[in-house]
Amino acid sequence: MSETTRTDKQVLLSIKNLDVVFGKGKKAFKAVDNVSFDIYKGETLSLVGESGSGKTTIGRAIVRINPCSNGEIWYDGEKISGKLSRAKDREVIRKIQMIFQDPAASLNERATIEYIISEGLYNFKLYKDEKDRIQKIETIMKEVGLLPEHLTRYPHEFSGGQRQRIGLARSIVMEPEFVVADEPISALDVSIRAQVLNLLKKFQQERGLTYLFIAHDLSIVRFISDRIVVIYKGRIMEIAETEELFQYPLHPYTKSLISAIPIPDPRIEKKKNLFVYDPAMHDYSTEQPSLCDLGNGHMVFGSPTEIEQYKAIRFSEA
């Protein structure tokens, strides 16, 4: 695996030709189909698509919850998919953490907040003594905007936003290098979303974290991400840097996602023309589609004829 790219950024995580299939035989369902992309150290890469597009499945494959049916996942130059030694497995678990979508379902209702945040510290012995453990969990509680006296309480005593902060504290206290954030704000009130996003950015700047941010809302993704991967029914449709994608959306599915972003002015929103994506608009009977690099790190999925059309649009608009 190449450690660097033409931009001299270090590749931290690399997904190569990933397939994830659920079920067997006639009931087999391919949730992720031949997906490949790299994530650079210190960046936030957002994975965007509608519900059921395979975003969470990819995130879960990275943290080894979902097994890979085909392809490989590499982390920091080492393969982490498939069978690993116990020592390597523990190292991967500590370095790669996940923040889950539902802050209620991902916390043990019978455990105190102190135990929930300390569980990883206990399992990996990431503290010198009891005083050091208490100091670590109190410090992380303050950093996520909660109070040390909250430690003796249970998850049901907190609001959704507070529970997501607890989930964030549980991941960050492990001092990971890479975090899979699976729609961490979709279950929260709009007023709380910005606070959680700001916390994620703060931790990234202070600790040099790398994020895979999974979302279906492109307006939020624009605020937090360096690059965006657009996925539809398990296949990548487009990859580009954030502003490049918003200025020059080329794939019709990307255009449909951008057109769905609500406009704050109700009068303009009412007159807006929604672009609806129809997969039948592509004719792949004679030409096979593939993911092609148009230059500038902008990749689009399409047949050779479509790729030429996308190139013409992209460079005529530039």
Please specify the SSE layout and strand pairing.
Elements (H helix, E strand, L loop, with lengths): L10 E12 L6 E12 L3 E5 L6 H8 L7 E6 L2 E2 L6 H10 E4 L13 H12 L5 H14 L16 H13 L5 E5 L7 H18 L2 E6 L2 H7 L2 E6 L2 E7 H6 L4 H8 L6 H6 L18 E4 L5 E4 L1 H14 L1
Parallel strand pairs: 3-8, 3-9, 6-7, 7-8
Antiparallel strand pairs: 1-2, 1-4, 4-5, 9-10, 10-12, 11-12
Structure description:
- By secondary structure, the chain is of the alpha/beta class.
- It has one domain (about 10-250): P-loop containing nucleotide triphosphate hydrolases (Rossmann fold, 3-Layer(aba) Sandwich).
- The chain is about 35% helix and about 25% strand.
- It contains eleven helices and twelve strands.
- The chain has helices spanning about 55-60, 85-95, 115-125, 130-145, 160-170, 190-205, 220-225, 240-245, 250-260, 265-270, 305-315, and strands at about 10-20, 30-40, 45-50, 70-75, 80, 95-100, 180, 210-215, 225-230, 235-240, 290-295, 300.
- It has an eight-stranded mixed beta sheet with strand order 6-7-8-3-9-10-12-11, with helices on both faces. Strands 2-1-4-5 form a four-stranded antiparallel beta sheet, covered by helices on one side.
- Strand 4 and strand 5 (about 80) form a beta hairpin.
- The longest helix has 18 residues, at about 190-205.
- It is globular.
- Residues about 1-5 have low confidence and may be disordered.
